[in-house]
Design a protein that fits this description.
Largest sheet: 8 strands, mixed
Number of strands: 14
CATH superfamily: Penicillin V Acylase, Chain A
Distance between the termini: 13 Å
CATH topology: Penicillin V Acylase, Chain A
Protein name: Peptidase C45 hydrolase domain-containing protein
Structural class: alpha+beta
Helix content: 25-40%
InterPro entries: C45_proenzyme-like, Peptidase_C45, Peptidase_C45_hydrolase
CATH class: Alpha Beta
Strand order of the largest sheet: 1-4-5-6-7-8-9-10
Radius of gyration: 19 Å
Order of helices and strands: EHHHHHHHEEEEEEHHEEEEHHHEEE
Number of domains: 1
Shape: globular
CATH architecture: 4-Layer Sandwich
Organism: Aquibacillus halophilus
Pfam family, one: AAT
């Protein structure tokens, strides 16, 4: 896995990302140009124009995100609009979708007190297998003292995704396919807003009140240290119409790729045609694995998460997701990476590819 340490003000961080990760950025641009046209018959010029509709909202949200994307473009030798389109890719490809549906996969899980003394979150990210070649692990050390340091796994050119920060706050992500979007902040930049936060309260303030342009699930955890049991995880479904907390308060959370909130469903229609035969089975299976561990009295650790994320029940559409060659082309997703974040220990474990076939390595900078 390619690791980049990015240091400085926002523009410089972006330039380092773009220049050192140029091959990955160009790979992402190639992937999404084909994807946008193949799924929605949108050419790249049109995709850039759609992305530009979000600029005013991003400037109001955090001007440094604009500066960082400008830096990525400069470093990679592409246009700002190209990088903006990558960061708005969910809004372009997934939101307001009316055709044959397709989906980011992903199964996200969390445990925290009172179930465990440590707060651990993790997920498989299921998407187009070719995006393995675009993956970057970023260690972001921003000169803005109001923002924490970040360790994040992302696709080349995208400045927000899955990771954790020096305040012990981390986020997992599940895409949701719905029929509406807005011109507010793209959800991947919302993920960056969460990672730029020092507390759960600050993170939630970045995603509420309809600030997000599309629907998604943000599973956010934090361990503030100062002894065992000082952590919490919450799962929010975000949307252009506001947010709602889903899941219980018993120390365990699971989310996949279908809407759970009745509040969100009042304004949005779930367009995932595979929610019953794929997403719901993965969610129920993850809950079953959690309950089995609890009933057996097993201590839930990072190793437990490795087993859960490697689970092959209902393969190919299992938690460890395989490409289903019998499915329509738009449905052929697979696990691209698997991530476990022990927020109590400020520790990230990452497996590139399917965890049932690979190994997890600790990410250090």
């Amino acid at each position: 896995m390619k690791k980049l340490t990015l240091v400085g003000p926002a523009k410089e961080i972006g330039k380092q990302h773009g220049s050192q990760g140029k091959a990955e950025v160009l790979h992402s641009l190639e992937t999404y140009e084909k994807l946008f046209y193949g799924y929605k018959q949108i050419n790249w010029k049109e995709a850039r124009e759609i992305a530009l509709a979000h600029v005013k909202a991003i400037e109001k949200y955090d001007l440094e995100l604009i500066e960082e994307m400008e830096g990525v473009a400069e470093g990679a030798g592409v246009d700002f609009e190209d990088i903006l389109a990558l960061n708005a890719r969910s809004e372009i490809a997934l939101a307001g979708y009316k055709g044959s549906s397709f989906m980011d996969g992903c199964t996200a899980m969390a445990v925290c007190p009172p179930l465990t003394s440590e707060t651990i979150i993790g997920q498989n990210w299921d998407w187009k297998g070719r995006q393995t070649k675009s993956l970057l692990v970023l260690g972001i050390r921003n000169n803005n003292v109001s923002k924490p340091d970040i360790t994040m796994v992302t696709e080349g050119g995208m400045i927000g995704k899955i990771g954790f920060n020096s305040s012990g706050l981390g986020v997992c992500f599940n895409a949701l396919l719905t029929d509406k979007k807005s011109n507010e902040v793209p959800i991947h930049l919302g993920l960056r807003g969460v990672l730029d936060s020092h507390t759960l309260g600050e993170a939630i303030s970045k995603i509420k009140f309809g600030q997000m342009a599309a629907a998604a699930s943000f599973l956010i955890g934090q361990d503030q240290g100062n002894g065992p049991g000082n952590g919490m995880a919450l799962n929010f479904e975000v949307s252009p119409f506001g947010i709602d907390s889903v899941g219980g308060t018993d120390g365990k959370l699971v989310h996949s790729n279908h809407l759970m909130s009745d509040v969100i469903k009042e304004n949005l229609r779930d367009m995932n045609e595979f929610r019953f035969d794929d997403s719901m089975i993965r969610k129920r299976r993850a809950e079953q694995l959690l309950d089995q561990a609890i009933s057996s009295g097993e201590q839930i650790t990072e190793e437990t998460f490795k087993g859960w994320l490697s689970d092959e029940f209902n393969a190919p559409n299992s938690i460890n997701h395989y490409e289903n060659m019998r499915a329509p082309e738009h449905r052929r997703m697979e696990t691209v990476f698997s991530i476990i974040m022990n927020l109590s220990k400020r520790r990230m474990l990452l497996c590139i590819g399917k965890p049932a076939e690979g190994t997890f390595e600790e990410v250090t900078f």
